[in-house]
Amino acid sequence: MNVEGLFEPRHDIKPRPKHPTGWEPGAELNGDGEGFLIPAPRILDGIARPEAEPWEEHLRKAGLDPALVEVVPPVEIRTWDAAVGGGEVQTMVYFKARVRARTARGVDPELMAWILKWKPRKKETIVSETTVVVPWSDWQVGKGDGDGTDGTISRIVDTFSQTVDYIREQKPSQILVAPLGDLLENCAGHYAQQTFRADRTLRDQENTVRRLATAGIKAFADIAPCLVLPVGGNHGEVRSGGQSFTDFSDNEFSDNNYSVRGWFLRIQGTY
Q: Which of 269, 177, 251, 170 is nearest to 220 (CA)?
């Protein structure tokens, strides 16, 4: 019996693909600032949770800057049985996320106008020799959790009204406004999933904080002279890869003409 040719390789049988079709790892961002991101798959261990993924790291590995590009939920999930060698098969989990340029999300002009139009109920003359300290801390404008920045702004302005009532009751000779840090959320590098949760760009966050601070300080200054003494917070630190890399003065609240703190320092002598 002639067995020649019986064991030649078959060329009509295609090998099993390494990744499911349409779920090959990679990223794409088109000219409109829209695209997708598929991180490298990993072995499924328990329940797949997109919100727990290190999206900033995934974006960087794909060559995208987390400060300029954000992940937009919901995230698609797929599992895939893959041979890992030695006859062993493992279930891999894939994530496919929609991404977009952060400039695609802007500030609501009506909301900004509402902040600037807000005014306390009335003025009152102050005669006592006391100081009221108004600490502002951890507004984190731009954090999208819960009802997002819109809800945060509403609550901050409500505290302004309560503070005005308190100041009038105390009748101080001056008011010390002390921004204690983290008034803005920033966009990346301060904790996991920050880019996934932020709902405003950094520029929008700064503009919103300035308008909120203006509304509050003007309301307080109608009652008594205001002194504004801000300090920096960790959310204002200039970071790379999640780490501060210069010194602690390199902060969004540092003393320069373009920062939130620099703006505070310029206005404190106005009222």
A: 177
